[in-house]
Specification:
Blueprint lengths: L1 H6 L5 E3 L5 E5 L33 H4 L1 H20 L38 E3 L12 H4 L2 H17 L7 E3 L11 E3 L7 H16 L12 E2 L1 E2 L8 H11 L6 E2 L14 H16 L1 H14 L7 H4 L34 E6 L5 H5 L3 E6 L6 E7 L11 E8 L2 E8 L7 E7 L8 E3 L2 E2 L4 E4 L2 E4 L15 E5 L1
Length: 471
């Protein structure tokens, strides 16, 4: 790994296909060649008969001609495959559904496992395989990918001494979140999978909370779908949705159509808009990750987590709340800010490095009582154990917003703007630490905007405590 990094200086590692998989059926090397084909029992991307013709739900309504052609070609491909002689790589049936009561059979346990291949030894290391230390595979199967990520984490500590390793893995287990993030695996380019990704992310944010370890807060999915062809509408919506996931990536199978945002002009524009919001909120997300790593809290959070006594929010799948119809034309994702909170922001620039070195802004959403609070955590962004940190508390109420910092990390980026929503009437005076702010103040329908504060905070937005008041 060190040698590879010397030639290609990468920043992190993506671990794919790290499950305990095998193209064998049962134990490898037993001489049962008919059970152990070299080729898997399914077509690989790009092979004859493996062309992807599937499209998202409703594609035929907006692309009737193309959908009809795809349907015809798919039928022709299926017919050709059926007419062909059975391939030499066909797998001999291995699964036996019989279970003997009282007899331990780890390949076919007496409880139901929805394994697509039936017997657990089909295309995976057999559960009854014995490790060198005598441990049976059945008892440690789920730890394989978990320990690969552990080993990768330790290796990256050697390559980047004192720095936080960045790893994304597919095969994880309870507690893996302390070493790596997780993405949702090979999903499909369907609206149903976009919908499912929400509950998947919420589940992983809690998964693995054992013995004080956190879940896997760094989670995302293959945006726009992995298997099957995506289309303009699905990819438009999905690029917007995933912008608010911790891990954000568009990725698909080789044999499907290209689905990068630039393939469709509307998707590119919707992505730019959503990404700008995401990048502006990186300080807020970073603060959530700080608490995830120190307290086991969540980054993506189910409504029921915030409102545990509301029975309408119990379902982690639907997240229903109150059903309200709101405008959401293609290219627009409605984003709401909960009243009573202060969100720290920085400029949405081209890279995260540029954004974290830009001026600060605060977005204050007052509650019905005119109050709000929030925090931002700041450090060097890279050290495994930062030598200096900064935690800034924000408190709003009675026509004032206070900022109070704790810690020794020095952030020299100035405060540029403060936007306060929920101000009942246009104020006659705005002051910062008692000094009147004359320029850059505007009021529009309960929203007070104060801009141009860089000069007053030139030593850094949090270099000293301050109070912004309006009356």
């Amino acid at each position: 790994m060190q040698s590879h990094h010397n030639n290609v200086p990468w920043d992190g590692i993506w671990i794919d296909m790290s499950e305990v998989s095998s193209f064998c059926v049962g134990s490898c090397g037993t001489g049962n060649l008919s059970l152990n084909p070299v080729h898997p029992s399914f077509g690989l991307p790009g092979e004859p008969g493996s062309i992807v013709y599937g499209y998202p739900e409703g594609f035929n309504l907006t692309n009737a001609t193309e959908a009809a052609t795809a349907t015809s070609l798919a039928a022709l491909q299926a017919s050709s495959a059926a007419a062909a002689s059975p391939p030499s790589t066909a797998t001999t049936p291995y699964f036996s559904s019989s279970v003997t009561p009282g007899v331990r059979n780890v390949n076919q346990p007496p409880y139901v496992i929805n394994n697509v291949n039936g017997d657990l030894a089909v295309h995976a290391v057999s559960p009854n395989a014995t490790h060198a230390d005598g441990v049976e595979e059945y008892d440690v199967h789920s730890l394989f990918g978990h320990q690969i990520l552990n080993a990768t984490y330790q290796a990256l500590l050697e390559i980047f001494p004192g720095k936080r390793p960045f790893i994304i893995g597919r095969s994880t287990f309870a507690g893996t979140g302390k070493w790596a993030g997780h993405w949702g695996g090979d999903n499909t380019s369907l609206f149903a999978y976009m919908y499912f990704s929400i509950s998947q992310a919420l589940s992983f944010s809690l998964f693995g909370k054992i013995q004080g370890s956190i879940g896997i807060p760094m989670f995302g999915v293959d945006t726009c779908g992995f298997n099957g062809n995506s289309d303009e509408e699905l990819c438009n919506r999905w690029m917007q949705l995933s912008a608010f996931f911790p891990f954000y990536r568009n990725h698909n199978v080789l044999s499907a159509n290209s689905q990068e945002a630039y393939v469709w002009a509307s998707v590119a524009e919707a992505s730019r808009t959503a990404m700008a919001i995401r990048y502006s909120l990186l300080p807020y997300m970073y603060t959530l990750f700080y608490y995830a790593s120190t307290t086991g809290s969540t980054v993506m959070r189910a409504l029921a987590w915030e409102f545990p006594n509301d029975p309408t929010l119990v379902s982690v799948v639907a997240q229903p709340g109150e059903n309200v119809t709101i405008p959401a034309p293609l290219g627009h994702i409605p984003v709401y800010i909960r009243g009573g909170y202060v969100l720290p922001q920085q400029e949405p620039l081209y890279t995260t490095a540029e954004s974290r070195n830009s001026s600060w802004s605060l977005l204050v959403a007052l509650s019905k009582d005119g109050a709000a609070s929030g925090q931002v955590y700041v450090d060097d962004g890279a050290s495994l154990v930062p030598s200096a940190t900064l935690l800034v508390d924000f408190t709003a109420g009675n026509g004032s917003l206070w900022a109070s910092a704790r810690g020794t990390y020095e952030d020299t980026n100035p405060l540029a703007n403060v936007t306060i929503m929920g101000v009942a009437a246009k104020p006659s005076t705005v002051t910062l630490n008692g000094q009147t702010v004359s320029n850059g103040v505007s009021y529009n329908g309960s929203v007070l905007s104060v801009k141009g504060l860089e000069a007053a905070t030139s030593k850094g937005a949090w270099a000293q405590d301050w109070v912004l008041s309006w009356e």
